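Journal club prep — side note

Before the paper discussion, L.F. wants everyone to see what a predicted structure for a comparable chain looks like in token form. Sequence:
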Amino acid sequence: MLDTITHLKVPVGQEDRSVCLGPDGSVAHVTRVLKMISGRWKLPILFRLFAAPSVRALQLKRDMPGISQKMLTQHLRELEQDGLIERQDYGEQPPRVEYRLTEAGRALMPVLMAAREFSRGI
């Protein structure tokens, strides 16, 4: 039975299981990241912003056929609240707002690229 329980194979002592499974353990942190990027359009937004340093919302909408303005706005706000993207309002008329990855968003990209490579290999 222990062969099928993979979380017990994590290389920590029995007394340190909370490092992985506790409220501030590895599982909690990975779950937090997965919640940050969950949503139909969040990954396309992140990859699009990774490809270009700064993009306007209208260009994001053009690049992702099928996304509604409401969903784009919602996902952009959530990604901004999670600290993965930043919104730059230039205060001009007509309004000019651009989005870009934050340092945290750029740090997440190698993880997403590794997930992409993992997917290609299985």
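L.F.'s comment for the group: The mean pLDDT is 89. Keep this in mind when we get to the figures.
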